[in-house]
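Journal club prep — side note

Before the paper discussion, L.F. wants everyone to see what a predicted structure for a comparable chain looks like in token form. Sequence:
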Amino acid sequence: MTSDQAGPERPHRAAPRPHPNPRTLATGTACGVAATCAGLAVAQLVAAVVRPDAAPVTAVGGAVVDRTPAGLREWAVAQFGTADKLVLTLGVLAVLGLLAATAGVLALRHLPTALALVGAVGLLGALAAVSRPQASWQDALPSAVGALTTAAVLCLLVRALRTPRPAGAPPGGAWALDRRGFGRLVVATLVGAAGIGYAGRRLGAHGSAGATASRAAFSLPPPEVPAAPVPPGANLAVPGVSSFLTPNRDFYRVDTALVVPRVDAGGWRLRIHGKGVARPLELDLPALLSRPLVEHDITLTCVSNPVGGPYAGNARWLGVRLADLLREAGVRPPSRGGPADQLVARSVDGMTIGTPVEAVMDGREALLAVGMNGEPLPFAHGFPVRMVVPGLYGYVSACKWLRELELTTFAAYDAYWVRRSWAQQAPVKTQSRIDTPRAGAAPAAGRVAVAGVAWAQHRGIARVEVRVDGGPWQEARLADADGVDTWRLWTWPWEAAPGRHTLQVRATDGTGAVQTERSTPTVPDGATGLHTVTVHVRPGPAARES
């Protein structure tokens, strides 16, 4: 047919965009994930040399913690408890995995775009690393080297796929490698990454071996002022209730460190300086331990603890009185004309915690602690030296992995948590908790032991009361007290009738103040309200027989 005979010209229609080839998606994802694993492994190796906290996943996770609003952080703690760091790390890895898969698929279509994405992710990791406290420009190296490694491995994998087939090779489509050959290449990349990652972990472990050895060799000196024995009646023989002293392995841990710092005791130093310091001090551990050591039982509580929550624990601490060190440095509290009202403690991981100077020097046993329940501080709880101040929430008193104390004012400086919507000063609020029966329990009708703990550090607990279904308050029996700085166990015998019941508890502190019923959140200075537990009482044996 000639052109004259051709029908009317039809409008040109663009060819439909082909759907993504499933093999392309799977192959690209495998390329991206394998290359990213190689990059992370090399970054881990570099971080073992530079600083463990500079590893990309750790740096990004730490930066997320730093920038998380207080309310969202409290939600995470409430949902995941002390596993919040693990959840955060898994979340960072999940996002990184998605970006890796995207980069791999892009690389098969347009390699420069994929490399740009890899570079952007590496830049993000580097910026996160250098934004962390105590960071230097070297902290950017792990993310930078990791991104370069990822880009190089991705290019190699894509080039291997696009290499022309040898002459005489049977046709096999557009791919230079068959599925089996490509699989072997990816597996080899992953095995290499695993080897490099293992080497990085071993190198990191070797770097902390000195810290581990220094703790193993550290022997606690005897206290010059030993604590009195725990009163025999401080514990209760009630199943399910907390013990008076919390074992170290069970003591709560709430902090921002995704990697627990391991400080070598031999290289530890403490600097005391700042406003109103007449004689600045710099101490190593032997110099600190040459001062008189004091042993004291103190209950610590986290400000993130919800009403009835688990973030409270009691331990026997051994340390040097902080007030004595400050006086040695020439510091006077504000009540005696001292110019500084805030003591800023700095940790080796960059955390800053601001404590009222007056509280530290008012006679309470504020300690630079080296021991916890008869053994050197665990690494997770601040080895070799941490602060412990009775009566204040941990975020304004309990700095772990301590390295510096600076005297300043609240007007001049906001510590880490204060910059994140928390109060500057936060004395512990009177709280009580029902340990048994737990919410949702189904005890049999009859006598049921209701028991728990109450605390009002540096004021003490004078009275605990329980009520059922909003009825009258009934006084509980208190276990023996061990001073005003520890929690106190309590129990109340309840004649439980079958059915659904609500139990509530309240405490009265040593000043006569009754725990408030008003419910408030943890932000900005600690939760208030009454711990409430609902149980379902089963009919007792006698009722079932009748």
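L.F.'s comment for the group: The two ends are 104 Å apart (CA to CA). Keep this in mind when we get to the figures.
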